[in-house]
Amino acid sequence: MTAETSQTLDRGLRVLKLLADTDHGLTVTELSHKLGVNRTVVYRLLATLEQHALVRRDLGGRARVGLGVLGLGRQVHPLVREAAMPALRALAEDIGATAHLTLVDGAEALAVAVVEPTWTDYHVAYRAGFRHPLERGAAGKAILAARRPPRPSGEDPDAPGYTLTHGELEAGACGAAAPLLGVTGVEGSVGVVMLADVVPERVGERVMHAAREVAEALR
Fold first, then answer.
1. What whole-number distance in Å separates Cα of residue 71 and Cα of residue 73?
2. What are the residue boundaries of the HTH iclR-type domain, all occurrences included (predicted)?
Protein backbone atom coordinates (compact mmCIF):
# COMPACT_ATOMS: atom_id res chain seq x y z
CA MET A 1 0.00 0.00 0.00
CA THR A 2 1.19 3.53 -0.77
CA ALA A 3 0.08 6.89 0.56
CA GLU A 4 -2.05 7.42 -2.56
CA THR A 5 -4.13 4.23 -2.16
CA SER A 6 -7.12 3.39 0.02
CA GLN A 7 -6.70 0.45 2.37
CA THR A 8 -10.45 -0.03 2.75
CA LEU A 9 -11.06 -0.03 -1.01
CA ASP A 10 -8.16 -2.41 -1.49
CA ARG A 11 -9.67 -4.81 1.04
CA GLY A 12 -13.09 -4.57 -0.55
CA LEU A 13 -11.69 -5.39 -3.97
CA ARG A 14 -9.76 -8.31 -2.50
CA VAL A 15 -13.03 -9.62 -1.02
CA LEU A 16 -14.67 -9.53 -4.44
CA LYS A 17 -11.73 -11.32 -6.05
CA LEU A 18 -11.74 -14.01 -3.37
CA LEU A 19 -15.48 -14.56 -3.78
CA ALA A 20 -15.18 -14.64 -7.56
CA ASP A 21 -12.64 -17.46 -7.29
CA THR A 22 -14.98 -19.81 -5.42
CA ASP A 23 -18.23 -21.49 -6.40
CA HIS A 24 -19.44 -22.21 -2.86
CA GLY A 25 -18.89 -18.82 -1.22
CA LEU A 26 -16.83 -17.96 1.85
CA THR A 27 -17.70 -17.39 5.49
CA VAL A 28 -16.69 -14.34 7.48
CA THR A 29 -14.11 -16.45 9.30
CA GLU A 30 -12.63 -17.74 6.04
CA LEU A 31 -12.43 -14.23 4.61
CA SER A 32 -10.87 -13.00 7.83
CA HIS A 33 -8.09 -15.58 7.55
CA LYS A 34 -7.49 -14.97 3.86
CA LEU A 35 -7.36 -11.18 4.26
CA GLY A 36 -5.42 -11.22 7.52
CA VAL A 37 -7.89 -8.90 9.25
CA ASN A 38 -10.32 -9.37 12.13
CA ARG A 39 -13.94 -10.42 11.68
CA THR A 40 -15.30 -6.95 12.50
CA VAL A 41 -13.51 -5.49 9.48
CA VAL A 42 -14.88 -8.26 7.26
CA TYR A 43 -18.43 -7.66 8.50
CA ARG A 44 -18.14 -3.97 7.62
CA LEU A 45 -16.72 -4.72 4.17
CA LEU A 46 -19.49 -7.20 3.41
CA ALA A 47 -22.20 -4.85 4.67
CA THR A 48 -20.94 -2.08 2.38
CA LEU A 49 -20.65 -4.38 -0.63
CA GLU A 50 -24.14 -5.74 0.05
CA GLN A 51 -25.58 -2.22 -0.06
CA HIS A 52 -24.34 -2.00 -3.66
CA ALA A 53 -25.55 -5.54 -4.49
CA LEU A 54 -21.98 -6.60 -5.19
CA VAL A 55 -22.13 -9.28 -2.50
CA ARG A 56 -24.97 -11.42 -1.14
CA ARG A 57 -25.05 -13.75 1.87
CA ASP A 58 -27.07 -16.97 1.92
CA LEU A 59 -29.00 -18.36 4.88
CA GLY A 60 -25.90 -20.18 6.04
CA GLY A 61 -23.93 -16.96 6.21
CA ARG A 62 -21.67 -17.68 3.26
CA ALA A 63 -20.86 -14.65 1.12
CA ARG A 64 -21.02 -14.84 -2.65
CA VAL A 65 -20.65 -12.41 -5.54
CA GLY A 66 -23.91 -10.46 -5.99
CA LEU A 67 -25.92 -9.71 -9.09
CA GLY A 68 -24.74 -6.09 -8.98
CA VAL A 69 -21.53 -7.14 -10.70
CA LEU A 70 -23.54 -7.88 -13.85
CA GLY A 71 -24.16 -4.19 -14.36
CA LEU A 72 -20.43 -3.57 -14.17
CA GLY A 73 -19.73 -6.51 -16.41
CA ARG A 74 -21.84 -5.12 -19.24
CA GLN A 75 -19.45 -2.20 -19.47
CA VAL A 76 -16.55 -4.59 -20.04
CA HIS A 77 -17.70 -5.56 -23.53
CA PRO A 78 -16.74 -2.23 -25.18
CA LEU A 79 -13.28 -2.38 -23.58
CA VAL A 80 -12.74 -5.98 -24.68
CA ARG A 81 -13.98 -5.16 -28.18
CA GLU A 82 -11.58 -2.23 -28.50
CA ALA A 83 -8.61 -4.33 -27.38
CA ALA A 84 -9.47 -7.11 -29.83
CA MET A 85 -10.04 -5.03 -32.98
CA PRO A 86 -6.43 -4.87 -34.30
CA ALA A 87 -6.03 -8.66 -34.18
CA LEU A 88 -9.47 -9.21 -35.71
CA ARG A 89 -8.78 -6.79 -38.57
CA ALA A 90 -5.50 -8.53 -39.36
CA LEU A 91 -7.20 -11.93 -39.23
CA ALA A 92 -10.06 -10.89 -41.53
CA GLU A 93 -7.74 -9.35 -44.09
CA ASP A 94 -5.27 -12.25 -44.01
CA ILE A 95 -7.85 -15.03 -44.36
CA GLY A 96 -10.40 -13.12 -46.43
CA ALA A 97 -13.19 -14.13 -44.09
CA THR A 98 -15.35 -12.52 -41.43
CA ALA A 99 -13.52 -12.51 -38.09
CA HIS A 100 -15.21 -12.32 -34.72
CA LEU A 101 -14.65 -12.19 -30.99
CA THR A 102 -17.25 -14.17 -29.07
CA LEU A 103 -17.84 -14.15 -25.30
CA VAL A 104 -19.92 -16.33 -23.01
CA ASP A 105 -23.27 -14.93 -21.95
CA GLY A 106 -24.98 -17.52 -19.79
CA ALA A 107 -25.58 -20.62 -21.92
CA GLU A 108 -25.06 -18.68 -25.14
CA ALA A 109 -22.19 -17.44 -27.24
CA LEU A 110 -22.42 -13.70 -27.93
CA ALA A 111 -20.49 -12.04 -30.76
CA VAL A 112 -19.18 -8.77 -29.32
CA ALA A 113 -16.84 -7.70 -32.14
CA VAL A 114 -16.96 -8.50 -35.86
CA VAL A 115 -14.66 -7.44 -38.70
CA GLU A 116 -15.40 -8.19 -42.36
CA PRO A 117 -12.62 -8.32 -44.98
CA THR A 118 -12.33 -5.37 -47.35
CA TRP A 119 -10.97 -7.10 -50.46
CA THR A 120 -13.26 -10.09 -51.05
CA ASP A 121 -16.08 -10.23 -53.59
CA TYR A 122 -18.35 -11.89 -51.04
CA HIS A 123 -18.23 -13.03 -47.45
CA VAL A 124 -20.53 -14.15 -44.67
CA ALA A 125 -22.57 -11.36 -43.06
CA TYR A 126 -22.09 -11.72 -39.31
CA ARG A 127 -23.13 -9.00 -36.90
CA ALA A 128 -22.09 -8.04 -33.39
CA GLY A 129 -24.88 -9.05 -31.06
CA PHE A 130 -25.50 -12.37 -32.79
CA ARG A 131 -26.21 -15.16 -30.29
CA HIS A 132 -26.24 -18.92 -30.53
CA PRO A 133 -26.05 -21.88 -28.12
CA LEU A 134 -22.58 -22.75 -26.92
CA GLU A 135 -23.11 -26.28 -28.24
CA ARG A 136 -23.45 -25.07 -31.84
CA GLY A 137 -20.91 -23.36 -34.05
CA ALA A 138 -17.13 -23.17 -33.84
CA ALA A 139 -17.08 -20.17 -31.49
CA GLY A 140 -19.14 -21.85 -28.79
CA LYS A 141 -17.55 -25.26 -29.17
CA ALA A 142 -14.06 -23.76 -28.83
CA ILE A 143 -15.13 -22.20 -25.53
CA LEU A 144 -16.54 -25.49 -24.27
CA ALA A 145 -13.36 -27.30 -25.29
CA ALA A 146 -11.31 -24.90 -23.16
CA ARG A 147 -13.44 -25.82 -20.13
CA ARG A 148 -12.39 -29.46 -20.28
CA PRO A 149 -9.58 -30.59 -17.95
CA PRO A 150 -6.10 -30.48 -19.53
CA ARG A 151 -5.04 -33.71 -21.21
CA PRO A 152 -2.50 -35.82 -19.30
CA SER A 153 1.07 -35.38 -20.46
CA GLY A 154 1.72 -37.39 -23.61
CA GLU A 155 -1.96 -37.92 -24.45
CA ASP A 156 -3.12 -36.80 -27.90
CA PRO A 157 -0.16 -34.43 -28.39
CA ASP A 158 -1.14 -33.56 -31.97
CA ALA A 159 -4.71 -32.51 -31.17
CA PRO A 160 -5.33 -28.99 -32.51
CA GLY A 161 -6.14 -26.10 -30.22
CA TYR A 162 -8.95 -24.95 -32.47
CA THR A 163 -12.43 -26.10 -33.46
CA LEU A 164 -13.86 -26.54 -36.96
CA THR A 165 -17.55 -26.75 -37.89
CA HIS A 166 -19.60 -26.79 -41.07
CA GLY A 167 -23.18 -25.73 -41.63
CA GLU A 168 -24.14 -25.61 -37.94
CA LEU A 169 -25.28 -21.99 -37.88
CA GLU A 170 -25.78 -21.24 -41.57
CA ALA A 171 -26.08 -23.59 -44.53
CA GLY A 172 -22.94 -23.56 -46.65
CA ALA A 173 -20.85 -21.71 -44.09
CA CYS A 174 -18.01 -23.19 -42.10
CA GLY A 175 -16.15 -21.81 -39.12
CA ALA A 176 -12.91 -22.08 -37.21
CA ALA A 177 -12.35 -20.75 -33.70
CA ALA A 178 -9.80 -20.92 -30.90
CA PRO A 179 -10.43 -20.14 -27.23
CA LEU A 180 -9.04 -17.18 -25.31
CA LEU A 181 -6.67 -18.61 -22.74
CA GLY A 182 -5.08 -17.10 -19.64
CA VAL A 183 -7.35 -14.05 -19.38
CA THR A 184 -8.81 -13.75 -15.90
CA GLY A 185 -12.53 -13.05 -15.91
CA VAL A 186 -12.97 -13.35 -19.67
CA GLU A 187 -14.25 -16.54 -21.31
CA GLY A 188 -14.46 -16.43 -25.07
CA SER A 189 -13.03 -17.33 -28.44
CA VAL A 190 -11.70 -15.78 -31.64
CA GLY A 191 -12.71 -17.20 -34.98
CA VAL A 192 -13.66 -16.79 -38.61
CA VAL A 193 -16.72 -17.78 -40.62
CA MET A 194 -16.56 -18.32 -44.38
CA LEU A 195 -18.50 -19.69 -47.33
CA ALA A 196 -16.62 -22.86 -48.20
CA ASP A 197 -16.93 -26.63 -48.28
CA VAL A 198 -13.92 -27.05 -46.00
CA VAL A 199 -11.73 -24.75 -43.94
CA PRO A 200 -8.31 -24.27 -45.57
CA GLU A 201 -5.54 -25.97 -43.59
CA ARG A 202 -3.73 -22.80 -42.56
CA VAL A 203 -6.81 -21.17 -41.08
CA GLY A 204 -6.75 -23.13 -37.82
CA GLU A 205 -3.23 -22.05 -36.92
CA ARG A 206 -3.97 -18.47 -37.98
CA VAL A 207 -7.04 -18.35 -35.74
CA MET A 208 -5.00 -19.67 -32.80
CA HIS A 209 -2.43 -16.95 -33.39
CA ALA A 210 -5.16 -14.28 -33.40
CA ALA A 211 -6.62 -15.68 -30.17
CA ARG A 212 -3.21 -15.42 -28.53
CA GLU A 213 -2.89 -11.81 -29.74
CA VAL A 214 -6.27 -10.89 -28.29
CA ALA A 215 -5.48 -12.64 -25.01
CA GLU A 216 -2.22 -10.74 -24.74
CA ALA A 217 -4.00 -7.43 -25.39
CA LEU A 218 -6.44 -8.19 -22.56
CA ARG A 219 -3.88 -9.12 -19.92
1. 5
2. 6-67
